Structures are given as C-alpha cells and as structure tokens.
Amino acid sequence: MEIDFTRLRYFVAVAEELHFKRAADRLMITPPPLSKQIKVLERELGGPLFERTYHDVRLTRLGEQLLGPAREILRQVEDLKSLASRITQAPSPIRIGATAYAPSDFLARLETAVADLPISTEFGVPGSAAEVAAKLVSGNIDLGLIHLPTTDKRLRYRVVASYPGAAAVRFDDPLAEHSVIAIEDLRDRDVVIDFARPNPVVLAQMTRGLNARGVTRIVRAVNQLGGELEMATQVFNRHLVALLSYAPASAIGRIFSPPEFKLIRIDESTWPPVKIALAWAPDRLGDPAGIEALAERLAGTLASSRDPA
Fold first, then answer.
1. At residue 235, what are phi and psi to the nearest 5 degrees?
2. Facing residues of 163 across strands?
C-alpha cells in the first residue's frame, strides 16, 4: 500500500477542522479536489474516515484511530526535511502563518506581499488567531497574523490593520435605513458574534463589552466554528444582527451585501475597531531583530497596497 503524504495532510486538516470548506481554505485549495483526495485516501485505507451529513462532519472509528499516527508521520516528515536542510546548510525559509478569520481581501494582500519578498518564505493559513499564536510560541512559525488582543506575554506584535465594527442585517430590517449606528442601537436585539468563537480571548472581550453597553441577547447561529452561509441564512430567517468587521470587499462582506442584506458601520466612539497584527515570539527565534524588521517591511507594503476606498 502506497500512501501519498499530501493526502495525509488533507486528512489531518479535515479532521482538525471538521469542515471541508475551512480545511480547504487552510490548505489553500478548493473543496472539490480536497473531497476527491479524501475519497482516494479512504479507498487506499479500506474504509471511510469521515461521516458526512448536511451540517456535520465527524470522524469515523477508523478516522479516530488513524489521526494520531497520521500526525506523527507528518511530524517525522517535517523533521526529516528540517534535518536535510540543516545538513545541506540551505537557508531555512521564513515561515509565516495567518488567521483564517481575518478579512479575505486583507489575507490576499498579505499573501501577495509575502510572495514578493526577496527571501525564501512559506505561507499558510493554519486556523484561528489562537492557533497561530500557539504555533508562534511553539516555534513552528516565525511570523503570524493574529487578532488583538492577545494575552500571551511572549509575543511582540506590529498592528497592520484596523477595521470598524459592523452590523449585518436583513434588507428590510429597521436598522438598514441607517449608514452608521451606535452599538447601543443593538439593545433588545438578538446579536450573533459567532465569528469570534475560534478566539476565546476575543470572544470574552466582545461579550463583556456588549454586556457593559446593554447588549445582552447574544445568540449562536451555527453549530460549528465558521459557517458563513449558514450564519447568513440564520440572520435572514430569524431577523438576527450579526456583529462583524466592516470589510465590504471581503468574502463575508460580500455575503452580507445587497439586495438581501446590508452591512452597517458602527460608530467607533461606541465600539472599538478590530485590530489585526503581525506577531512574533522573540524567544523562539534565532534572529528576532530580523523578523521584527520583516514585520515592519510587510506593514509598509500592506499600507501602500490598501484600497483607497
């Protein structure tokens, strides 16, 4: 039996995300080839790895038993590659990771900026900001895009983007008549903040901030982390208010666009903007000054490439 390491990576990604779309985004491919490769791997292994329903993806008994060994095999492959690199004295690429929950248009600009660097790099989207931070402090990546705040004192960071808050509502919602609202206008409304769920620190901060301003009816719209289309459906059907970042050019901004929805800016004096930063863990780096300089360079590139609109 011959097993392709790429298909093993795909299996581990789906097993960790339990969601084919998020796993595909993390792997920087589209869902159809990911699903096809998983089916090929299932045929090679002699049984299904996942139970798929309309809303859920779960590991089968076979998948549960193979996940640990698959991770170990991939770790050994990475160790082998690192050893070979050290032996040949080839300069190791700078490993850069980004949270998948940053606005998609910003992620695209960051990936372009990284690709244009005159040095060897590896770019990936490993998951939530919390997962990126964990990879930074474990030394698995050198530079990472995260949401602030972060409570980990081992991290240093450079803010590279700031997004005002936004409320996404149905086209016929009373709030849709406004171009800007205050956060207090969401009192007595059912508010969804599901996109903060992958980052417990941000989720707790948002919940406290909303409660302090009298916004207490916080509800859940999706059963799993992510699920943009399911969230939009729930907002539309249940007349919910989704609290997001104001990023109309992003994928989520386009989902909550006319004619079905409206994305309304929230006055920054009533709700602080979301800040995104490039972070690094100096104690885990051989050249922390060099990584800090790289963060500054990328910040300048991102600022100059920002859409004036």
1. -60, -45
2. 274
Q: CA–CA separation, 1 vs 262, rounded Å?
A: 53
| CA 13/CA 289 separation, integer angstroms | 32
Mean of pLDDT values over 171-182:
97
Overall size of the chain counted in residues: 309
240 and 219 in contact (C-beta within 8 Å)? Answer: yes
**Residue with token string 């299996």:** 11
Q: How many CB atoms are located within 10 Å of the residue 2 CB?
A: 4
Distance of CA 254 to the CA centre of its chain: 17
Measured distance CA(124)–CA(111) in Å, rounded: 9
pTM beyond 0.90, yes or no: no
Confidence of residue 224 (pLDDT cuts 50, 70, 90): low
Which 3 state secondary structure label does DSSP give 244? strand
Among 281, 276, 306, residue whose Cα is nearest residue 128: 276
Angle subtended at Cα 236 by Cα 250 and Cα 206, rounded to the nearest 5 degrees: 60
Instruction: Tell me 267's DSSP state.
Output: -
Q: Residue 308's pLDDT is what?
A: 44
Q: How far apart are CA 269 and CA 84, in angstroms?
A: 54
